[in-house]
């Protein structure tokens, strides 16, 4: 095989890696991104799935981070209206915790720091007279409502990878970065494909966006020291049958200072999380413990009239957040900001420490600005184009759904709404030439048809049933074990 050469090699297929690869491709660089597993298979699919400023970060005086995150809500709503959408958050006032005057000051700052345009401002409500108070215990009489956004985290990662590819970049999943050596102004990198076959590539610069593995890449694969480090903090979530009616979410305060969200999820469930627990083991070996399940259920029981029990949990997941190690002992107080470091001793390597889903695009832009001196012809774009699927007229999602229902009237409206959420203006590519339901092929259940699975395998790097069921469609939550096994068997037979 002829050795391939690139301007930039990006290691890591999470939100930061795909975001940087996408920005680099937009700047006109030739890019190769490698990911040892599936896209978003680690931290980036184990989030709380929020695009938010981080209200509680104001307590830690992280005003720049909050301002940046709040402004990014507006940008992402326009770039990907199918994947990011507004969500009302209800904050019941707990008399024994933060005083109401402090909450009001925080919400005032939250409303005005980020140049809010699309989202409504915060307000106080009487919980006993408002429908938002219906699921809460009578003791909670006052509350606040503010706006943030929900996001499909894994699909946001895939969309960035797709845009990178459409701009000429190459994305290789199930490809492990083994090592790289400098030779003057060039990196020579050794890769290993899923079948064990090796490949050698060269690049003028390297980006280490390996998330929880960032130090391992630096010290192992690159044989370099690192003045910065990450602290691995496990965050766990549970999914239970819906605890309330309506599309609103709830933000609950705990006596230990933590904040836990109760989020409407997949139409008939509630997503509850997250915890903050220091993780000492392998980054890929992480599980939501029974103790964390009990913690989350207990906190919700303080607020909700009908609270979940551990036996009600239908799914649990955990991820490791690679937070920049600022030497803070309390996991909840560790900064959620990011640090970028460039080693310029020859061919550059940029390493990413920390970061969060909301600010991935800003992080990617800052990374490209730091690398730009090494690429004289690179042009870092200011206005982001819509992500794949995001070219919806006026970014008005409901109007797009109505037009899609008129185009495919024979498709169940609930299924069509989900497909529009997943694929946006790429929905015609999923549907193909179908003019009736049988044209979509085998029905695996829960609104998942053969045509969609084929599209995911063809266009979105899906290789396994987990890639399809738990990351790209979330259908696994709605299907029985035999139905999930049938998807795996069918995919393996192709």
What would you note in describing this structure?
The chain is 30% helix and 26% strand. It has helices at residues 15-26, 63-79, 100-112, 153-166, 214-221, 290-303, 360-371, 397-407, 413-423, 427-431, 450-459, 465-472, 481-492; strands spanning 4-11, 31-34, 50-51, 84-92, 123-126, 142-151, 170-172, 175-183, 186-193, 198-208, 230-241, 249-253, 259-265, 269-273, 277-278, 315-324, 338-343, 349-354, 443-445, 448-449. It folds into three domains: 4-43 and 154-229 and 335-374, 3-Layer(bba) Sandwich (FAD/NAD(P)-binding domain); 86-149 and 231-327, D-Amino Acid Oxidase, Chain A, domain 2 (2-Layer Sandwich); 393-492, Orthogonal Bundle (Helicase, Ruva Protein, domain 3), CATH 1.10.8.870. Strands 3, 4, 5, 6, 11, 12, 13, 14, 15 and 16 form a ten-stranded mixed beta sheet that branches. The protein has 494 residues and is α+β, with helices and mostly antiparallel strands. The protein is built from 13 helices and 20 strands.
Give the termini distance in whole angstroms.
26 Å
Radius of gyration: 23 Å
Q: Please describe the biggest sheet, giving its number of strands, its sense, and whether it closes into a barrel.
A: 10 strands, mixed
Spans where pLDDT lies below 50 across 5 or more residues: none
